[in-house]
Amino acid sequence: MNTLQEEALEEMKTAIHEWFDEQENRKDVEGAVKRTTLQMGIFNGVMLDFRPGRTRVDSLNFGRNAAGSKSKASPFTREQVLHEVQLLLAEIVKEKLDKLETSPLIDYRFTLQGTFATTDGPVKLTVLEIVYEEKKRQLLERIQSYIEKKLEKGSYPTKPLETFFLTRHLLDPYLFHEPEVARMTALFDRIQELNKERTQVLADHRRYIIQALTGWAENVFLRRYYDFTRSEYRINDYKIKPDTALENKDEPNQPVDLLLYGAVMILRYEPNYSKFKGQTFLELATQLGSDKAGRMLKEGSDSFSQEDVHMRHELAECKANDVFSLITVVICKEEAGAYERAISFILSLLRKGFPKSYKIKLKSSAREVLPVKGLVRSDTHRFFANALAYSELHPLLEEYAREAMEEFEWYEDTEGEKSVMPGSYAVFGLGLSAERYFPLVEAYMALVDDEHQLVQDKYTAVFAETHGVTERSTPALVACLRRSRGSLKLKIQLELESEDKLSLLVQHVEALTDYEAERVLYPIWGKSEKLAALARKAQEPRKELLLRLLKATGKA
Questions:
Q1: What is the band of 251 on the pLDDT scale with cuts at 50, 70, 90?
Q2: Of 89, 168, 174, 419, whose CB has the highest number of CB atoms within 10 Å?
Q3: Is the dihedral of CA 343, 477, 446, 527 positive or negative?
């Protein structure tokens, strides 16, 4: 090697030693692996990113993408990296690992992956891979013991951290060459069954199951059949390999069935912005010749019975497909009973886990819309506007709305600035119809994601115009204003000339934080300077009330 190459190799060696030294000096190693018997070690590998003058080593779990950073020209050719540098680096890392073989720092398997700048362009390769057979044997014993004691014979909730490790182990091809699909899906179902009483904890378990299934699908299963380019910000670009076909596709419990299981979990439990991945998995399985995947795309998943997803009556007919988050509603007779049956059908579906971010495809002769500007004129909007015309259905619509409302979920036929949370149309209509639904409006506004939903401003203006400032309406009005955006302007200043009504507003605003108070008052008076000017000119007791509002904003 010439001088430049020796310097470059020394730079890589130094980076490797620094990483290992940093980990060996950690004080939390023992505590970290004692959290659960399912963790053999903290690190399963490192990524070496060699660019002269900018070489870096990170753990595989936390590697950073440094694309675009400038560096010096590489002194190595591709062939030198493959046949000389790789061997030298492997020896350096193996020497460090020999001293740590029994340490809880190192997992049962350790991999050194590298990205190397060369004169021929970047080269990516696995430099070294070691499996510690004794650690592997111990881990397999622990996995089996955990499954038997905590899942198969257990009757108590389990810890999300245990599910995090267990799911990854079960889908690790270095531990289990081929997944036992029937047993694995039964275990995943069992985890959910044991934790069903604790909603947030159950969500954590499901998230870890989905993450493990997604990792297996993308890194193991689909790689057998597809070449693809990974993307962090959009759908991966998949291209099927020539002469590719599923093995034993007509037999039950094949690996493709595990892909379909993961797809259904994504569609049922992931946020709306992640559901595309579940549909993609089904489409890829269909391309491979899976009849079940094709049937699921056409009719929906097997998560619901036929009675759950299809209702036929002389008044209305409804069909649901959870894969596309679509509910088709045909109103045969325009009367309350038809909409009652359709709403009850949808409500039942939601309670059984149908995606809340759904859309309605409606066939109806009625074309009602809500008196709120800015709402998408969609079939979903029209369905609920039609139903709201029947006052006898309002209690059922409230029941539906409370079930449907969920933060970060959106009706599928809205997007961008016109996105609305499920339940929005029912809440908007009910809130305008009667005082008894003001608490529903408050509950709705508490869930609104005001960074991505804007139409609540249009609704707030209509709500204020309809109900004004009263003892019953003020809590709901303030709840609306707490989700307002900077463009909202309310025309209620004249009404607030009444000291009684102004006093009502003061009582509710004083209970807020400075920021919330300012946000509530801005659509009414604009900047706090204007409110201060009004206070200076006002007479008592109005002056005191305005000063109390100003004080609530922290601008007194």
A1: confident
A2: 89
A3: positive
pLDDT tops 70 at residue 433: yes
Q: Residue 234 — pLDDT band, cuts 50, 70, 90?
A: low
> Which DSSP category does 111 fall into?
E
Q: Quick: pLDDT tens for 396-430.
A: 999 999 999 998 889 999 988 889 999 999 999 99
Cβ atoms 151, 187 nearer than 8 A: yes
Q: How far apart are CA 92 and CA 90, in angstroms?
A: 5
> How high is the pLDDT of residue 244?
84
Residues in Cβ contact with 23 at an 8 Å cutoff, skipping those fewer than 6 apart: 42, 43, 105
CA atoms within 13 A on the CB side of 24: 12
DSSP 8-state code for residue 109? E
Task: Please write the tens of the pLDDT for every residue from 99-144.
Answer: 998 889 999 999 999 999 999 999 999 999 999 999 999 999 999 9
Residue 99 vs residues 92, 105, 365, 476, 492: alpha-carbon distances, Å: 12, 11, 77, 66, 75
Residue ranges per structural domain of the chain: 3-131, 136-299, 306-466, 493-555
- Nearest residue to 287 (alpha-carbon basis) of 259, 266, 261, 262: 259
- Residues shown for the chain: 556
Q: At 483, is the secondary structure helix, strand, or coil?
A: coil
Angle, vertex CA 436, rays to CA 432 and CA 441, nearest 5? 55
Concatenated DSSP letters of 55-89: -EEEETTS----TT---PPPS--HHHIIIIIHHHH
**394/214 Cα distance (integer angstroms):** 42
pLDDT (average), residues 291-320: 93
Among residues 301, 395, 306, which one has the least CA distance to residue 354? 301
Segment (H or E) for 44: strand 43-50
Pairing of strands 359-363, 326-331: parallel
Instruction: Mark residue 189 as left, alpha or beta (left: phi above 0; alpha: psi -120 to 50; beta: remaining).
Output: alpha
300 is written with which tokens? 């929906």
Give, in order, the Cα–Cα distances in Å from 516 to each of 91, 421, 544, 554: 61, 22, 20, 11
Exposure of 249 in the CB half-sphere (CA atoms within 13 A): 14
**Entry pTM:** 0.74
Which residue do the tokens 């003020």 mark? 474
pLDDT band of 209, cuts 50, 70, 90: very high
Give the separation between CA 514 and CA 74, rounded to whole angstroms. Answer: 57
Q: Which two tokens stand for residue 534?
A: 């009004």
The C-alpha atoms of residue 238 and residue 220 are separated, in whole angstroms, by 14
CA distance 46 to 62: 9
Quick: pLDDT tens for 39-86: 988 899 999 999 888 899 998 864 444 444 455 788 999 999 999 999
pLDDT of residue 101: 87
Q: Is residue 143 within 8 Å of 169, Cβ to Cβ?
A: yes
